[in-house]
Amino acid sequence: MTTLANRINNLAESETLAMSRKSRELRAEGHDVINLSLGEPDFNTPDYIKNAAKEAIDQNFTFYPPVPGFEDLRKAVCAKLKRDNFLTYEPSQIVVSTGAKQSIANVVLCLVNPGDEVLIPSPYWVSYKEIIKVAEGNAVFIPARIETEFKVKPEQIEAAISPKTKLMIFSSPCNPTGSVYSKDELEGIAKVLVKHPGIFIIADEIYEHINFVGKHESIAQFDFIRDRVIIVNGVSKAFAMTGWRIGYIAAPLEIAKACDKLQGQFTSGACSIAQKAALMAEITPPDTIEIREMQKAFRERRDLMLKMLAEIPGMILNKPEGAFYIFPDISYYFGKTDGTVPVNNANDLCMYLLNKVFVALVPGDAFGDPNCIRFSYATSRDKLIEAVRRIKEALGQLK
Ligand code: PMP
Ligand code: GLU
Prior knowledge:
Layout: H1 6-9, H2 15-28, E1 34-35, H3 47-58, H4 71-85, E2 94-97, H5 100-111, E3 117-122, H6 126-134, E4 138-143, H7 154-160, E5 165-171, H8 183-193, E6 200-204, E7 229-234, E8 247-250, H9 253-266, H10 272-283, H11 289-310, E9 325-326, E10 336-337, E11 342-343, H12 346-357, E12 359-360, E13 362-363, E14 373-376, H13 381-396
Parallel strand pairs: 1-12, 3-4, 3-5, 5-6, 6-7
Antiparallel strand pairs: 2-8, 7-8, 9-14, 10-11, 13-14
The chain binds 4'-deoxy-4'-aminopyridoxal-5'-phosphate (PMP) and glutamic acid (GLU).
4'-deoxy-4'-aminopyridoxal-5'-phosphate is lined by residues 39, 99-101, 125, 171, 175, 204, 206, 234, 236, 242, 247.
């Protein structure tokens, strides 16, 4: 008999966080590790946001906040959705949580019954699959390969739908591929889903502001499907606020109320000080010098990475249009060895690079494509140049 519940025994550790933990351990042993495993901006939170948090402390925002978030923050999120996305929501439809990760978990737990199917275009972000497991739902993956820019077609979605389908979850801009769905592509998907009234859609838009192809498009813009879309967003990525832990949903009222009820039993409202910082982030239009500079840096790093990685033999690349990841196919190296360590899959390759040249990446299996590896380029130019130099050298030794 095991002590722990099946629920936790069956749950996989988050591989992004696991690689990050391994690189911290190697660093503690004195190794010069370059960590390209974690999707986390390397910038500091802008001062105008930090100052709002300092003021919140001085003004004694230190009591339990309302479970779904302070009213001013929920109003600011509605104003942001109007300003940036031309979408109208009421504050009652907004639930603020401890990171977008909790927002997603809330929605899945509120919608998915045991045995329900959840469609996940693949590659996908690591945690979707495991959160669905906790809800005892069944993930149904819809594969998209590098040849189609890792984007799924409406026909594929249609073919994956069954009477048990309850939900679809996807991110655009996408983690791990950087792919961005266009308005037309989203409309094609919405037109399929609208024919099946019981299916809801989680649109994970956490990388909204890290988009190199122009305006962000949300599937919620199509009125005919809007009452089945739950937008997930937050401040972690665009405002360099990963540690503040603030995410939110904009959802049909019934779902927002359900998430409020669940959160009220699990965690209560998100940190009051962090909410006040997030309020400042959201009410300020996202074109401050600080935000623009981060966006510019991400684009330059994307271009730099593409140029450098293209010089490595056997690496197949697509051009990411958003987020801060590159997801190349590296299957060319499978079956090779440096004479000591065999590399048979993406996991072997990541461990080889970590142990040999101290560069941490994440194997594509974590995101549903075992031929790929994920680079997070949310780190300095110098570190990226050094990381790719080391990787090139180590891969060159595989025969
Ligand atoms: N969705 C995606 C696609 C992500 O990459 C992440 C990673 N941070 C999250 C959600 C969760 O973000 P948060 O830090 O707000 O929990
Ligand atoms: N979302 C980031 C990533 O994919 C942060 C780590 C995590 O939350 O899993 O690396």
